[in-house]
Each structure stands twice: as C-alpha cells, then as structure tokens.
Design brief:
Radius of gyration: 19 Å
Helix content: over 70%
Largest sheet: none
Distance between the termini: 30 Å
Order of helices and strands: HH
Strand content: under 5%
Structural class: mainly alpha
Mean pLDDT: 88
Low-confidence stretches: none
Number of helices: 2
Number of strands: 0
Length: about 70
C-alpha cells in the first residue's frame, strides 16, 4: 500500500514539474502579453475535478451489487 501511495505522489509531483517547466519555457519563448481565453481557464480549473466526479459516479454505479 505504501508503494502505491509513493508512486502516486511521485507521478503527481513529476507532472506538476513538467507543467511548470513547460509554462516557464513558453514564457521565455513568447515574452509578449497574450489575451486570455476565459473558457479555457475555467476548463483548466474545474475540468479535472468534474472529470473525477463523473468517473467515480460511473464507477460506483457499475460496481453496485444488485443481487442483494
């Protein structure tokens, strides 16, 4: 159990590092200001949590034992 948690934490930190480095590199390559697409910001902020909510609700509905 400890190994799976450690692996999950490591993967999360590696992905966060990759996103951070990618955004930093994009800022260096394109230093001029840009216009913000508000829909994209909302999708990036709330998209992962909505995706996980749908995933867990579907997983729960398919895993319920109906023979009881």
């Amino acid at each position: 159990m400890l190994t799976s948690k450690l692996l999950l934490i490591t993967c999360t930190w590696v992905l966060a590092l990759l996103v951070s480095v990618s955004l930093r590199a994009a800022g260096i390559v394109h230093p001029q200001s840009f216009s913000i697409n508000h829909l994209l910001v909302w999708i990036l902020v709330f998209g992962p949590s909505i995706f996980l909510l749908i995933y867990f609700l579907l997983k729960r509905s398919f895993s319920l034992d109906t023979s009881i």
